[in-house]
Amino acid sequence: MRLRAPCPFALWRITKDKPLENFNDLGLAPMLLQNLDGLGLHKPTPIQAKSIPHIVRGRDILGLAQTGTGKTAAFGLPMLTRIIAYGKRPTPKTVRALVLAPTRELASQIHDNLAAYAKDAPVRIQRVVGGASLNVQAERLAKGCDVLIATPGRLIDLIERRAVVLSETKYLVLDEADQMLDIGFIHALRRIAKLIPAKRQTLLFSATMPKLMDELAQSYLNDPVRIEVATAGKAADKIDQGIHFTTQGEKAALLAEYVSRHPGELAVVFNRTKHGSDKLAKLLEKWGFSVTAIHGNKSQGQRERALASFRAGEVQVLVATDVAARGLDIPQVAHVYNYDLPNVPENYVHRIGRTARAGRDGRAVAFCGPMEMSDLRAIEAAMGARIPVIGGEVHPEGGTRPPPGQQNRGKKPHRGQGPKPARPAQEKPAATDAKPAQKPTQKRRGPPRGKGKPAQGGGDAPKRPARAQRGH
Ligand SMILES: Nc1ncnc2c1ncn2[C@@H]1O[C@H](COP(=O)(O)OP(=O)(O)OP(=O)(O)O)[C@@H](O)[C@H]1O
Ligand SMILES: [Mg+2]
């Protein structure tokens, strides 16, 4: 790891400057501009407009912007511009730019995004992730590559096999930077960073950056520009959020109610455990929903198939652990349900950020059981906002929330009563342009009659059980 004395960031906030109207003035390579046009990307998002000119000029960046606001292109486009300017192939087994991401699916998505931006450009882009053949990946790296997108564990395996060297690496990108700096990845990251020359450009991007990570981030950066489009940790603007108090035993029926109210609209359901995800997916399937699951105990083939069928709109519900919380971009996702609240508070913002991407609308409902009140408080503290209550009753021993009748649904709390409310869920289902590519199979949906007692509440909270249909 390259340790440097912490230095003050140059703070450049979007609000101070006029937004740029197109990509032409940002210093990007002309062939990238052409590809952006072909992809239908005409106007840079704020994080792109603010980051790209600095990165093109070679500055280190700490970029913080809400979920779904185009951070991939914000680091990808200027980095590709600089790499295209080299004009010669990398030497065998070397990597010019290394992008690290926390999950295989996110690494693959970044790979596909960069490959689309760099279509027909003389740039070799590779990806190495766990769950696939080491030999095949080693072969791919033999010729050297311009950009390598990797999960840290697999990259270390390949380094140990001497399939790849980082001695000529000039760019290091940490996507989901706060997670990469956290306990699960920091040891691997330290090992990898030590192998990269100190003279490099480092780009850190995320939607959240807890204070501790922020301090650690500085040791990886050299005289960085800090670009903070919105306060770090703020949820995406267009998500209608709501919290529904319930009990653990009632959550499945409640979820079935919510999903039934939005036929054909894609929903991600987050569950804390792998076993819980499987159990819930099976139950929903039994109740007639079109559902698939993704978590760390599935084989890579199963993970890829689950995501592909969900992306294609062939299944309506994806039940997932936090393996799907960060970075995944499936524009048609209209709803996120936090079946269990996350135990890492920042992950709430990432989980709900799977909807309302690139300016779309989306809804996020969190089910909060009596044992989860402290998780809820931690989430609200991390976001600096209260989540409006849209249904259910708080457990008498569960916490300090007022009873539903007196809740400040959608209203601003009085001064000194805690953080401001997040955007409340609307009475009607949120307008969304989410259209599954293929309409999911609509079978009988919902739990058998009497199996679950749906909680009563305001907003979009289900008010009565779905019409029960026995058998399947
Ligand atoms: N300039 C743009 N105009 C319109 N859409 C864009 C633009 N840039 C990126 N997008 C689209 O926005 C979506 C979100 O982009 P991306 O995945 O990079 O977001 P992100 O900020 O990295 O989100 P997260 O924090 O969840 O990782 C993608 O579908 C992408 O194609
Ligand atoms: Mg991202």
* Biggest sheet layout: 8 strands, parallel
Query: Which range does the strand content fall in?
Result: 15-25%
CA radius of gyration? 23 Å
CATH superfamily of the largest domain: P-loop containing nucleotide triphosphate hydrolases
User: Ligands bound here?
Assistant: adenosine-5'-triphosphate, magnesium ion
Task: Give the N-terminus to C-terminus distance in angstroms.
Answer: 58 Å
Specify the helix fraction band.
25-40%
* CATH classification class of the largest domain: Alpha Beta
Shape: globular
CATH topology of the largest domain: Rossmann fold
Protein described:
With 472 residues, this protein is α/β, with parallel strands linked by helices. The chain folds into 2 domains: 11-228, 3-Layer(aba) Sandwich (Rossmann fold); 239-407, P-loop containing nucleotide triphosphate hydrolases (Rossmann fold, 3-Layer(aba) Sandwich). 30% of the residues lie in helices and 17% in strands. The protein has 14 helices and 17 strands. The chain is globular, with a radius of gyration of 23 Å. The chain starts with 9 loop residues before the first strand and ends in a 51-residue tail after the last strand. The structure holds adenosine-5'-triphosphate (ATP) and magnesium ion. Residues 71-72, 175, 327 line the site of magnesium ion. Keywords: ATP-binding, Helicase, Hydrolase, Nucleotide-binding. Pfam families: DEAD, Helicase_C. Residues 21-49 form the DEAD-box RNA helicase Q domain.
